[in-house]
Structure formats: C-alpha cells, structure tokens
Amino acid sequence: MTQPLQRRLLLGGIAVLLIGGFLFVMLRAGPLAPIKVVLTEVKQGSFTPEIFGIGTVEARHNWTIAPTITARILRIHGDVGDSVKVGQVLVEMDSVDLEQRLNALDAILERAKSTQIASLAQRTDAAARRELAESALRRTQELADKKFISSGALEIKIQEKTSADAAFSVASANAMGATQDLQRAKSEKAALQQQRTNLRLMATTDGVITTREAEPGNVVLAGQPVLRIIDPHSLWVKLRIDQGRSTGLTQGLRARIVLRSLPNTSLMGSVARVERISDSITEERIAQITFDTLPAAISVGEMAEATLALAPLPPSLLIPAASVVRQGSNNGVWRMESGKPTFTPIQIGAMSLAGDIQVLKGLQVGDSIIVYSQKPLAADARIQVVESLGKAP
Questions:
Q1: What Rg do the C-alpha atoms of the chain give, in angstroms?
Q2: How far is C-alpha 10 from the geometric centre of its chain's CA atoms?
Q3: Within the chain, how many helices (H) and strands (E) appear?
Q4: Is the dihedral of CA 82, 214, 92, 76 positive or negative?
C-alpha cells in the first residue's frame, strides 16, 4: 500500500472518530441529550393542613391622653415605660386667660343676682298696683251700676286696671329675663370650671405609657396627643395571611406563635378575630391572635410568625408540591406511561407547609410521576431517570 493511500485512510479514520465523538456528545450532553428527571410514586396518607402568616405584636386596648382645649403644658408626670393607675394625674395644663375669665364671670354673676332681685321687687310692686287697680275698678263699677258716677269715671278706672296689668306683665318678663341671665352666667362659669378641671389630664385606666409626644412649655391644640397608654395585658398578634392560602381561616383556630425575640420557643394561642376587611394591595387577610399565656419578654411592634392548625384530612392521595405543573388553565403532573412522560390533569385539594398536596382526582396509588426535571418537558421528550439532578444515573 502506497504512502498517500495510507495517509488518506488515516485521515478518514480520524474524521469518522471525530464525527462519532461529536454525535455522542450531542446525544449525551448536548441539546439532543435526554432530559434528566427524578421520579416518585403517588402515595396514600393524611396530614393536618396549616396556615402560615407573619405579623406584629400590637395592643388591643390603647388610649390617647390629650387636652380638650388649646393650652400650654406645665408639667408631665410620667415617661415612656412608666406604669400608671386609673385616676392618676399625668399632665397639668395652663390656659392663659382662664382665671381672668372666671373672675369676670363672678362679677357678671353678682350683677345678675342684683338684677334678679330688682326685677322680682318690681314684679311684686306691679302685682300690688294691679290688685289696687282691680279693687278700685270693682268699687267704681258698683257705683256706676247705681248711677252714682258718670261713665267717664268708670272708663278711667278701666284704663288704670289695663295699665296695671301691662306693668305687671313687663315686670314679670323682666324678672324671668333676669333669672335666665343668672342661669346663663352660672352655666358659663360651670363650663369654665370644667375646662379648668380638664387641664389636669388623668389616666382613664391602668396601663403603661408608650409614647410621649410633647414636653413642658409646648402649646398643644385641642385633641393633640400628649401621651399614649396601652394595656400591657391586651397584647395580641396582628397576623397577615396570603389570601390564596387562607381557606379555612376562622375564629377559634389554635395557633403556634414564634416571636422574633424567642426564636426557639413556641407560644400557644388562638384566633380571636378575623377582620372583615382585607388588604387589597398586598392581597392578605388579617387575623388577630391572642396568647394563652402572655410572655414576660415581649414588646409592641415585635415581629412574630404564627402557624394555624386546621382540621386533619381523611386519608387521600398525596404528591409533592414540586411535581405540580400548569399547562393552560389546568393543573397536572407528568406521569410515566411506557417510559414516556404524559401530562395528566389533576384536581388538587389542601396543601401542607411541608410541601405535600392532596390529590382529589386524576391519579391512583402507585402511579409514577416526575418531581423534578432538568428543563421543561414535552409529551415526546426523551428522558433519563436519575436519583437527583446533581448525580449521574
């Protein structure tokens, strides 16, 4: 065999080896390689569905200490963290002209009393004049009936009686007006005295001061908070739960609470209330969780996690949540049939926090389904079963 022929045969053999190696790589590791998948079997079992949420510790009962009039703060008896008792004076206010207005009302009251006395005396005098005019009219009427006096004299007495009645009416009205003026002055003084009483702001219940929003010397408006108080025994967790996972959320569910400050301690509680209004922005429902036993080391605003236990499910088919895929509007799984993946629509039920999903329809016990795949599957895809996607078959 000549040397050129040998060289051509050698080059041809090398080319065949390269092409074969390339095809082998394409079929084993390239785009034509089978898709690695991990299988599992459909099992029958049961679990207790749970709802998980994150929230903050808040006070169910809280109060604001604020004045009812605009005034300047004189003294504040208490600071953040102090415990207070019902009726305890917390803030003393100072109104600039309150005492002067009270003194002016005292003078108005004295004058109103004097006016009332004078009006009553005038009414008594008018009543006496009216009685005298009535007596004189009766005597004159008797004389006129006997023709002893003229009709003109009778008309004079009638006019005197009318004038006396009018004078009594005026005196009565003046007396009533004086009495009303006196009552108005008394009411105004009582209102100012109440305002002076309101300048001493007291605790309406036992609690703890959480916020101090003003200092002595500050002028605060009516209704502007000076202190905020909470009931430390009314702390609960305001829990936020994804609306998509809130099925079964009702009042009375038992809860397992983990505070951020006590990550290794589970505290028991229950759902005290489920709010009727959800958060439309975060798409969350809100529930209030009370503690069975309130821990000592707890603060308002602390983050907390809570797990709510629902009623246990009856025995049913269970599959891993990772195996569920969605095609179009259907939920389903890739089920193995004769070594090929086949998409099978299923109807799913409850889901556990551990990742198990209840299957209501579409599968049977022992069916082999794909849990994980190296990339998206198709009905005619070539697959390679492995124990895990990180290991060889």
A1: 47
A2: 85
A3: 3, 24
A4: positive
